[in-house]
Amino acid sequence: MAEEVILLSTWASPFGNRVQIALTEKGIEFEYKEEDLSNKSPLLLQMNPIHKKVPVLIHNGKPVSESLIVIQYIDEIWKDKSPLLPSDPYLRAQARFWADYIDKKIFDAGRKVWSTKGDDQEAAKKEFISNLNLLEGQLGDAPYFGGDNFGFVDVALIPFYNWFYAYETCGRFSIEAECPKLVAWGKRCMKRQSVAESLPDSTKVYDYVLMLKKYLGIE
């Protein structure tokens, strides 16, 4: 019996992009269903009744939500190909720590960069760069956060790389000037088929951010 794998997401969600990358890295065939978050589908509301958010992975009729949990589930179910988490318990714990850091420190800080003005935006840029600097320090001179292997932390962070152009343009600053190793890492990841096929174009993301700014009255 063939496995049924469905992903409910939206193109602009970096959290949904993570799941797409993980599934593609593993070579898992899946059905992608684009959600309109202003008019959520009955399937999404049924499969994620608590948070009513994307992404949701539906595996043989059973839903799994919250992107980092979904990626760990994917790694455990399809463990024979392209492992994303290290086998060593300590290294696995460290990978989970940094992925959690990305969730708590990168998304909100990046949002502040494009959604604020004046002194608030200057403070937001400093916070954002400081957070990226910590990640760059963790990366060091390795090609990936998983060392020589593309792994869990890379999957967690790389969707935000395609938001860098929007952050830079709205905030009028250069991330590469502040974090050259991290930008080089992003370019390296973009050469992977799983990443290139899963992420939206940076200019499309920027247009989406402009739309959000207009909608929120912060032009």
Secondary-structure map:
Blueprint lengths: L4 E5 L4 H13 L4 E4 L7 H6 L8 E4 L2 E4 L1 H11 L11 H17 L1 H9 L2 H22 L12 H10 L2 H8 L3 H4 L1 H11 L2 H6 L3 H15 L3
Can you walk through the features of this model?
The chain has helices at residues 14-26, 42-47, 67-77, 89-105, 107-115, 118-139, 152-161, 164-171, 175-178, 180-190, 193-198, 202-216, and strands at residues 5-9, 31-34, 56-59, 62-65. The chain is an alpha+beta fold and 219 residues long. The chain has a four-stranded mixed sheet with strand order 2-1-3-4, with helices on one face. The mean pLDDT is 96.
The fraction of residues in strands falls at 5-15%
Number of helices: 12
Write down the overall mean pLDDT: 96
Overall geometric form:
globular
* Main sheet attributes: strand count, strand direction, barrel closure: 4 strands, mixed
Say how many strands there are: 4
Structural class computed from helices and strand pairing: alpha+beta
List the secondary-structure elements in sequence, H or E: EHEHEEHHHHHHHHHH
Low-confidence stretches: none
Measured as a percent range, the helix fraction is 55-70%
Question: Biggest sheet, strands in spatial order?
Answer: 2-1-3-4
Radius of gyration: 17 Å
Distance between the termini: 53 Å
Short description:
The protein is an alpha+beta fold. It is built from 12 helices and 4 strands, in the order E-H-E-H-E-E-H-H-H-H-H-H-H-H-H-H.
Keywords summarizing the entry:
219 residues, 4 strands, 12 helices, 60% helix, four-stranded mixed sheet, alpha+beta, globular
